[in-house]
Amino acid sequence: MTMIFGVPLAVFMGQLLLGLINGAFYALLSLGLAVIFGLLKIVNFAHGAMYMLGAFATLLGMRYLGINYWAALLLAPLFVGLLGMLIERVLLRRIGHLDHLYGLLLTFGLALIFEGTLVNFFGVSGARYPTPEALQGGYQTGFMFLPKYRAWVLLAALVVCFATWYIIERTRLGAYLRAGTENPALMQAFGVNVPLLVTLTYGFGVALAAFAGVLAAPLYPVSPTMGSNLLIVVFAVVVIGGMGSILGAIVTGLAMGLIEGLTKVYYPEAANTVIFLVMILVLLLRPAGLFGKEA
Amino acid sequence: MTFIKKTLASSVALAVTAAMATAAQAEISDGEIRIGYLADMSGTYRDLAGPGGLEALRMAVEDFGGSVNGAPIQVFSADDRNSADVGANTVREWIDTRNVDMVAGLVASSVTIAVTRVLEENDGFGIVSASAASSITNEHCTPNHIHWVYDTYPLANGTAQAVVQQGGDTWFMLTADYAFGHALEGDVTRVVEENGGQIVGGVRHPFPTDDFSSYILQAQGSGAKIIGLANAGADTVNAINTASQFGVVEAGQQLAGLLVFLNDVHAMGLDATQGLLLTTGWYWNMDDEAREWAERYYERVGRMPTMVQAGIYSSTTHYLQAVEATGSDDPQTVREHMMRQPIHDFFARNGRLREDGRMVHDMYLARVKSPEESTHEWDLYEILTTIPAEEAYRPLSESQCKLVQN
């Protein structure tokens, strides 16, 4: 058998693929954060809670309203997106002129409220969401058994990531958005409704998190704390990619998934820390992040 | 003269009587039994003890009549947030300002070890119901606490031995990378090797871990017949779920969960957990006595009790009985009385409290039912065998506890 640094090739390839799938989650979540920070300058600490709410909306929608997985892929992000817009309108807008720290504290507080409320009702053990029937089972790829559902997660996440990148960087709407955050007064003078754009952007950013939540529901137990565990890693990914860089968030997310996957083979004890080591290195060598522009 | 003598004599008599009366009352300090419940009320371990354990404690107090020898029983609680500092400080405050008589609950082993030190310094009393580490009554034993429900020793003994005897003689260990995981891994390795099995590989994963796919893939690659899970709570749940997604059981490997609670199995569902072997100190549906109590609990809480929650009721009741019988809440008096009484109730069978503070009782090897076998939401285990109390736990001859003469 071919070996790579003492690990059989088949195992090595399998780990790379799994790393890529985890990376797709990181990419999806850090993309939402990057959009919100890049365009609105809000450090959205409620992002993990929004991811969790997406998963919960999926679970409860099935349990009480009979909404199936495919419908939830659309409805859960819509619901969480609307909630996000409400939060932006009622709360975040009022502190927009203050230091970033206030937005960070406000969103962190909101995250704690959402988590605490759900812990009160559902406990922390989490509930299981069944894998949709069409995606049960898996493929024997020659080097590993790949569950169909994981293949679907990778595909869906990549499509959504690149669609988002395309809209923001390559379309007229995206151009308005970028211009609106660069110079809101001028855009408003041109007759563009900037406050509405801001609300929609925040709603879209958290909807991306909720979409990741729907994808995660059949993979991990749906529990109120699922988001807070992931949030810190995702923030590290955004810092490595460069705060606010859209493409940076996507590429870094995938790359960190791969690096973490390889760490799990060669030195599993460090799997939870390796991303932070990379973050420290990047902050030392390129403080603006791999894809960020120097201020 | 006579008058003075009489007066003197009677006042002396009066003083003696008064002193005796005070002494009798002082047996129960402050004229109240104060029980403090310390547990993780909001984090990872909430569902196995948490608010449900507090309700079990309240049930025990109510069933006892709410008072002991006329002294009312007061219950209060706090969230330790799985932090040893928070736990130790809370108990110190309870001792200083509320004169707590007994501390119940006690979940994360790290919190428990910190709290028992405080109890020993202040001559308090604690009953540990939820912690796993067997060191709590071994190198960390004190005269001021006892350990009720289970510990890592019978977990390894019960599950690992049964699995090896059924032909599962090659193991891959998936271990939580901290003290509890290492201890459990050590115990399992000893039991597997003693029974003629072999550990062929293992991974120590960070605590906590969400994504187990990489480790499951490594376990699949190892070719071991058994994947041993030396972790707990959410980590075990995640590992089992992932194994189910990757078709581990279908491909011929078996999982051995070394610390699995009823709420974990309930959360994962039978599809993912069927066939899993586990060791438990109690199961709500194991016989009529257990079932009767569990159904009363269910009516109040809306969930079936875990072994920990049942153990909290059982240990509190035994504590109150000892206070009633001795008329005292002095830790050593109560403890000595509890050690003399055999323990046999809906929870503990053939139980006795040893001098190291370990309450040994029958343990059970169980198998998780398949969805077809299960008749309702909480019909989750089939009890396979009983592990007798005296075989299940670490023998006193191997004890390092300072209270045991070896």
UniProtKB/TrEMBL annotation, chain A:
One of its GO terms (molecular function) is transmembrane transporter activity. The chain crosses the membrane at residues 12-37, 72-92, 104-129, 149-168, 196-220, 232-258, 270-289. It is a multi-pass membrane protein. It comes from the Bacteria. Its main location: membrane. One of its GO terms (cellular component) is plasma membrane. Keywords: Amino-acid transport, Cell membrane, Membrane, Transmembrane, Transmembrane helix, Transport. One of its GO terms (biological process) is amino acid transport. It is found in: Cell inner membrane. Belongs to the binding-protein-dependent transport system permease family. LivHM subfamily. This is Branched-chain amino acid ABC transporter permease. It comes from Billgrantia desiderata.
TrEMBL record, chain B:
Residues 32-369 form the Leucine-binding protein domain. It comes from the Bacteria. Gene3D superfamilies: 3.40.50.2300. Keywords: Signal. The keyword Cell membrane does not apply. Pfam families: Peripla_BP_6 (PF13458). InterPro entries: BCAA_transport, Leu-bd, Peripla_BP_I. Residues 1-26 form the signal peptide. SUPFAM superfamilies: Periplasmic binding protein-like I. Belongs to the leucine-binding protein family. PANTHER family: LEUCINE-SPECIFIC-BINDING PROTEIN, PERIPLASMIC BINDING PROTEIN OF ABC TRANSPORTER FOR NATURAL AMINO ACIDS. This is ABC transporter substrate-binding protein.
